[in-house]
Specification:
By secondary structure, this protein is α/β, with parallel strands linked by helices. It has three domains: about 50 residues, no CATH class; about 130 residues, Sandwich (Immunoglobulin-like); about 325 residues, Glycosidases (TIM Barrel), CATH 3.20.20.80. The protein contains eleven helices and 27 strands. The strands form seven sheets. An eight-stranded parallel barrel has the order 2-5-8-9-10-11-12-13, surrounded by five helices. It has a six-stranded antiparallel sheet with strand order 16-20-21-27-23-24, covered by helices on one side. α5 crosses α6. The two termini are about 45 Å apart.
Length: about 550
């Protein structure tokens, strides 16, 4: 018998059924008799040996904001993410576009409400020299993309193209600076070029290239994966490099840049320790973290043709994000108890073998219900750690890794991950509602994972949203949610699910996996009961009694 189940049973007695026993006055033999009676009843109770899904949500006086920037995206010069994904050029194409950027992509991402977009990498960032991507396109020099496929990069999509595209998308740009092969002066000039509104050589050059006003770029990455493709540096060396580069990054205005240090690879806790210890905190706004849901880097398995074993192992790695965020945050807490520095998970998502017949360096993979599960549980983790995690970037936006969009010439489809991100955008800039979860287990080959994941928030207008994920590949999960601190006008919901874990959208069948209304939830006396089917994502909406509807 488990103590948690004993507590649950006692709490489930009908209201008014109270036994008041003066335990201090009861003699030992009587207490033993009572204990035997209780234990016998518990074992006789059908289904008692099973755990139950119990969530408790504290809806009174929420204080922590779930930053919208947790829902950021990532666009690298990799495969068909930029060229053929975002950008089709301004001539010789029948695909509707605005200044070369696909209109269907603009519309889809605006609907998704993406808050920020990271560019130009990734590994590509530390080989990218921004001055190669400005001026007349016909005169721009070419380079070889040594990281991704060894193809020739013609630099036709550069700083102006990206920042103007961000304006179309109504999103904030997040620029990754070249520290690996660049110079301090080069990055300082890029900051001046994009941000300085007064008279200077860089603002003059920007005007000559057609942009009089500055873009006011706030988010800046000081290198990328400095421990790997960004220079194979040691933590102590990079900390010094960061201090040098950050010193000269100024836009010459009162506006403060948000500088993000190249952070740890997954569980490299020493990296975070060194950065927090060695970099003056007034120079540091965010520390990055990268973690991909990969079964085996030498044998990643297929994105579509996978068995339940592959799914279970992938979810094991995805759920490790909880441990990673907690432990990196605890290190940051020791040096920054006021939580002024953000943990920025600017690369996350599933990573599998590329689709058959595609360039291995392009990282093109399909997107199934397994990816929807990764997205749902990961975003719940970020939401629940919103006190420290204040920015994140799914890798990547189009045609690369866990994309939200796939394109094929004039065709475009939305992936299951897109639908999860859209369902969850109700949490952006809402207030976090703290919760506790007791979950059933999802068992495979004697290994276990918690079946249920959840997060909750309330908007400024008093509307509560609860996002639920059932990762169990086989069983529906019945969930009881206790809501304290508010009264509600009912419940509505949306669900993303499908018949098979391998289900995905294709250009021939673009709506096989789609969002549907969810009606298997009811609320009574502050208790919400929900039945979430196997491998499903559900988002519930509960207007408060006095909330506008």
């Amino acid at each position: 018998m488990q103590i948690s189940n004993f507590k649950l049973f006692v709490l489930s007695y009908p209201k008014g059924f109270n036994i008041k026993l003066p335990l201090k006055k009861i003699r030992i033999p009587i207490t033993r008799i009572i204990l035997l009676i209780v234990l016998s009843s518990l074992f006789a109770f059908s289904g008692f040996s099973q755990k139950s899904n119990i969530i408790t949500i504290q809806a009174d006086n929420p204080k922590i904001i779930i930053s919208k920037h947790i829902y950021g995206h990532f666009a690298e010069h990799l495969g068909r993410c930029i060229y053929g994904g975002f950008y089709v050029g301004e001539s010789d194409t029948k695909i509707p576009n605005i200044n070369g950027v696909r209109k269907d992509v603009i519309d889809a991402l605006k609907k998704l409400k993406i808050p920020n977009l990271r560019w130009p990498g990734g590994c590509f960032a530390d080989t990218y020299h921004w001055k190669d991507g400005i001026g007349p396109k016909a005169k721009r020099p070419t380079i070889v993309n040594q990281w991704w496929g060894g193809i020739t990069e013609d630099n036709s999509f550069g700083t102006h193209d990206f920042l103007n595209m961000c304006e179309l998308l109504e999103t904030e740009p997040y620029l990754s600076g070249n520290v690996g092969s660049g110079t301090v002066q080069e990055l300082a000039d890029w900051v001046q070029y994009t941000n300085f509104q007064g008279e200077s050589p860089m603002s003059k050059l920007r005007a000559e290239n057609g942009k009089q006003t500055s873009w006011k770029v706030k988010f800046w990455g000081v290198g990328n994966e400095a421990w790997g493709c960004g220079g194979n540096m040691k933590a102590e060396y990079y900390a010094n490099i960061y201090r040098q580069y950050a010193t000269f990054m100024s836009d010459g205005t009162s506006g403060k840049l948000f500088k993000i240090a190249s952070g740890a690879n997954s569980s490299d806790y020493n990296w975070t320790e060194v950065l927090m210890r060695d970099i003056p905190h007034q120079m540091l706004d965010g520390v990055a973290l990268h973690h991909y849901s990969v079964i085996d880097w030498n044998n990643k398995s297929s994105a579509v043709e996978f068995a339940e074993e592959h799914y279970f192992k992938t979810m094991q790695v995805a759920l490790k994000m909880e441990e990673l965020v907690s432990r990196h945050s605890s290190i940051m807490d020791r040096y920054d108890p006021g939580k002024k520095i953000a943990l920025v998970v600017d690369e996350w998502g599933g990573w599998y073998n590329v689709e058959k017949g595609t360039n291995p360096g392009f990282l093109y993979q399909q997107n199934t219900m397994r990816d929807a599960m990764i997205a749902g549980v990961t975003l719940n983790i970020f939401n629940n750690h919103a006190d420290r995690v204040r920015m994140a970037n799914l890798a990547q936006t189009i045609n690369v890794l866990q994309s939200v969009i796939l394109t094929d010439k004039e065709k475009m489809i939305l992936t299951p991950t897109y639908h999860v991100m859209e369902m969850y955008n109700v949490h952006q800039d809402a207030k976090l509602l703290p919760l506790t979860i007791t979950s059933e287990t999802y068992t495979f080959n004697k290994e276990q994972l918690p079946a249920v994941s959840a997060s909750a928030s309330v908007t400024n207008t008093g509307v509560t949203h609860v996002s639920l994920v059932n990762i169990d590949a086989n069983k529906t999960q019945e969930i009881v949610i206790h809501l304290y601190g508010s009264n509600y006008n009912g419940v509505t919901g949306k669900i993303l699910n499908s018949e098979k874990l391998n289900d995905h959208n294709t250009f021939e069948n673009p709506s096989k996996v789609n969002v549907k209304p969810f009606k298997d939830a009811k609320i009574e006396n502050g208790i919400l009961t929900v039945k979430v089917p196997a491998f499903s994502v559900v988002v519930l909406e509960l207007p408060a009694v006095n909330a506008p509807r």
